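Note to self: the last two entries modelled the partners one at a time, which told us nothing about the interface. This time every component goes in together.
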Amino acid sequence: MAILVTGGAGFIGSNFVLDWLAQGFETVVNLDKLTYAGNLQNLASVAGNPAHLFVHGDFGDAALVARLLQKHQPRAVINFAAESHVDRSISGPGEFIQTNIVGTFTLLEAVRVYWGTQSEANKTAFRFLHVSTDEVYGSLAKTDAAFTETHRYEPNSPYSASKAASDHLVRAYHHTYGLPVLTTNCSNNYGPYHFPEKLIPLLIVNAQAGKPLPVYGDGQQIRDWLYVKDHCSAIRRVLEVGRVGQVYNVGGWNEKPNLDIVHTVCALLDELAPRLDGKPYTDQISFVADRPGHDQRYAIDARKIEQELGWKPAETFETGIRKTVQWYLDHPDWVANVQSGGYRDWVAQQYEKTKASA
Ligand code: NAD
Ligand code: TYD
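The predicted structure of the combined assembly is written out below.
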C-alpha cells in the first residue's frame, strides 16, 4: 500500500510527509520538481526511511506520473504541488498557469487512466485529494460572513485564479468521470519549513538579520491563520472520512490584521531573542507600497469539517506562533541555507542519491 504525494518537499507537503511517516502509515511516494520552493532539507530526518520514496520530477510529466502510478499502485494521490506565492504570481503569472492549471490537468488525466484500470473495490476506495486555498473565494468586507464551501468563486490574483481553475478541473473529473475526488480550501498556514518569502517567516528572518519588516499598505488586511500541522491533520481526516466529491474549508477561526501578526512576532522575538541594543523589534517595521489588487480579508467558516468529520485544530494562534518563532530560532542552519541558496546545492547532492530509485 502506498500514497502518492505531489509537492512534498514544499512547506505544507513536507510537514505532511513528516507527520504521515511519524504516525507509521503506509509508504509515501513523494513527487516534487524541486523548484525554488522545494527543499529536500525539510525531509532530511526521513532521508533513510524506506517508507519515503522521493522522486525528483514534474507532476505535469504525464509519462512519469503514469509510470509511478503503475509501479506503486497508490490508494490515494494528494496534490500539494503548486506555485504558491501571490507576489510572484503578480510579477510572473505564466508559471502559475503552467503549474497550477496545466500541471493539475495532466496529473488528473494520468490518475483517471490509472484509476480506470483498477478493480471495482480499488476504484471505490481510491481518493484524489486536491489541496487548495481560501483565496479562490476572493476578498471579504469587514462585516461579511466567513467563506463557506458554497461561497462563489471570485479569485483576484493570478495565483488564486490559477488555483480556482484547478479546483474546477478536479470537480469536473468527479462529475464527468466519477473520479473519487476531495478538495480542501485552507486559510493561511504558518509553521516550520515555511519559505521566508511569506509574511511570518520573512518577519522572523528579517528581524534577526536587522533588516526592515515590510508591511504592505496600512497593514490592516486580515487573514485567517492555521498552524501547518493542523492543516495536515485536516487533510488526513478528509482523506479517510471525507465524502467523495465534497469540498471542505479548513481554518483556525483566527482572523488577524497583518499588523497584529507583525507585533506578535516582534513581541515573541523581544522575549526569546532580544536585540543586542535592547530596542524592540517593532523599530524595524517599514510600511511599503501595497500589493496590487491586495485582498482585504479572508475568513473561513470551518463548521462543515468540524461537524461532519470531527476535525479541530490542536493549536491556538498563541501556541502555534510561539512554536513557530522558536523553531526558526532553533534552526539557524536551515534559515542560512535557504537564504544563501545553499539548499539548492544540497538538493543536487541528495538528488544524485535518490535519482536511481525513481
Ligand atoms: P510551496 O510553494 O512551499 O511548495 C510547493 C511545492 O511544489 C514545492 O516543493 C515545489 O518544488 C513543488 N512543485 C512546484 N511545481 C511542481 C511541479 N510542476 N511538479 C512537482 N512539484 C512541483 O507551497 P505550500 O505553501 O507548501 O502549499 C502547498 C499547497 O497548499 C499549494 O497547492 C497551495 O496552493 C496550497 N495552500 C497553501 C497555503 C499556505 O498558506 N501556504 C494555504 C492554503 C493552501
Ligand atoms: P503572504 O504570506 O504572502 O500570504 P497571502 O498573500 O497568500 O495571504 O502574505 C500574508 C499577508 O501579509 C498578505 O496580506 C500580504 C502581507 N504581506 C506584507 O504585508 N508584507 C510582506 O512582506 C509579505 C510577504 C506579505
